[in-house]
């Protein structure tokens, strides 16, 4: 027993030598910033609703401490666990059951039944789903990468043939999960999950020019969709509140609906803060003017209190983490590690871009939080696990290179 403990301790000690601090330090800075801003942005609402200005701070502090423990533990485990079919099947099935439960008894927040209420906090299964699908695709695509590379592309039809060949086996599973998330309805989750899966499939063997072409086609479809909503003002397959978010983004000052109210007050917060901000705790927009000030709209409150310059620094730290993840994907030797790190980097890139883009009015509002900074246990813990997996892959890759 003592010998086993000694071996485990020596393995952990060895792995600590290879921790990517260029990834961890910015993460810790974002955690600290998030804790400060959650307290500042939520204090007014917490006082009026719960008679305790520290209500959300205490919960976020618990999530933050737990996240720090999680990033250490997950970084130290054997990398083989992420490839384990048993782990993926059981975890995937559990998430499937949770998504089914949501359709029956989910907690509706802002129009979407995306949360399971556990009392102290709520679990959002779609957050867990992102990481599991990344690991699943990483295993499947890495095991079949050589087959994909051997398919010859001679015309446009063969491009779709190759994409279908790459995706046909996991397509049913991914499609089922996306359907369940869409039925909540959680369009932010659908966009992020679809984007992750698409990028991982495209980089698994498709030439760069065709990958860029596919992304261009999807972007074109999105623009046509936006223009259609602008002209028609409605879509039969989307709930009214989602259509409101699109129309608000297209003309925030010409619309009197709730989504426009949020967006206009987000603009006020951004403008009022100027370059240097009005100071911590002195936001006006958080005092009932800007709903979700500590979740979806935490960036505008940061801009109001800290100023544009400090917000840009925080955003640079976040996008540096993404840059670092993609850089690790280029350094890692095995295809599984490459695909998983690309998938996780894509997840953070899409989520961060959607949140900031929605807050500044260049993208529709989707209810997506800003990773590591916004209030929320599910989002913070899952984002931390994802980052820890990247660190774990990096550590194990560095140890193999040293042998």
TrEMBL record:
<dbReference type="InterPro" id="IPR018365">
    <property type="entry name" value="Cell_cycle_FtsW-rel_CS"/>
</dbReference>
<keyword id="KW-0133">Cell shape</keyword>
<keyword id="KW-0812">Transmembrane</keyword>
<dbReference type="GO" id="GO:0009252">
    <property type="term" value="P:peptidoglycan biosynthetic process"/>
</dbReference>
<dbReference type="Pfam" id="PF01098">
    <property type="entry name" value="FTSW_RODA_SPOVE"/>
</dbReference>
<feature type="transmembrane region" description="Helical">
    <location>
        <begin position="87"/>
        <end position="108"/>
    </location>
</feature>
<dbReference type="GO" id="GO:0051301">
    <property type="term" value="P:cell division"/>
</dbReference>
<comment type="similarity">
    <text>Belongs to the SEDS family. FtsW subfamily.</text>
</comment>
<comment type="function">
    <text>Peptidoglycan polymerase that is essential for cell division.</text>
</comment>
<feature type="transmembrane region" description="Helical">
    <location>
        <begin position="163"/>
        <end position="181"/>
    </location>
</feature>
<dbReference type="InterPro" id="IPR001182">
    <property type="entry name" value="FtsW/RodA"/>
</dbReference>
<feature type="transmembrane region" description="Helical">
    <location>
        <begin position="187"/>
        <end position="203"/>
    </location>
</feature>
<feature type="transmembrane region" description="Helical">
    <location>
        <begin position="114"/>
        <end position="142"/>
    </location>
</feature>
<dbReference type="GO" id="GO:0005886">
    <property type="term" value="C:plasma membrane"/>
</dbReference>
<dbReference type="GO" id="GO:0008955">
    <property type="term" value="F:peptidoglycan glycosyltransferase activity"/>
</dbReference>
<dbReference type="GO" id="GO:0015648">
    <property type="term" value="F:lipid-linked peptidoglycan transporter activity"/>
</dbReference>
<keyword id="KW-0328">Glycosyltransferase</keyword>
<keyword id="KW-0808">Transferase</keyword>
<feature type="transmembrane region" description="Helical">
    <location>
        <begin position="307"/>
        <end position="326"/>
    </location>
</feature>
<feature type="transmembrane region" description="Helical">
    <location>
        <begin position="57"/>
        <end position="75"/>
    </location>
</feature>
<keyword id="KW-1133">Transmembrane helix</keyword>
<keyword id="KW-0472">Membrane</keyword>
<protein>
    <recommendedName>
        <fullName>Probable peptidoglycan glycosyltransferase FtsW</fullName>
        <ecNumber>2.4.99.28</ecNumber>
    </recommendedName>
</protein>
<keyword id="KW-0573">Peptidoglycan synthesis</keyword>
<feature type="transmembrane region" description="Helical">
    <location>
        <begin position="21"/>
        <end position="45"/>
    </location>
</feature>
<feature type="transmembrane region" description="Helical">
    <location>
        <begin position="338"/>
        <end position="363"/>
    </location>
</feature>
<feature type="transmembrane region" description="Helical">
    <location>
        <begin position="210"/>
        <end position="229"/>
    </location>
</feature>
<feature type="transmembrane region" description="Helical">
    <location>
        <begin position="375"/>
        <end position="395"/>
    </location>
</feature>
<dbReference type="GO" id="GO:0008360">
    <property type="term" value="P:regulation of cell shape"/>
</dbReference>
<dbReference type="GO" id="GO:0032153">
    <property type="term" value="C:cell division site"/>
</dbReference>
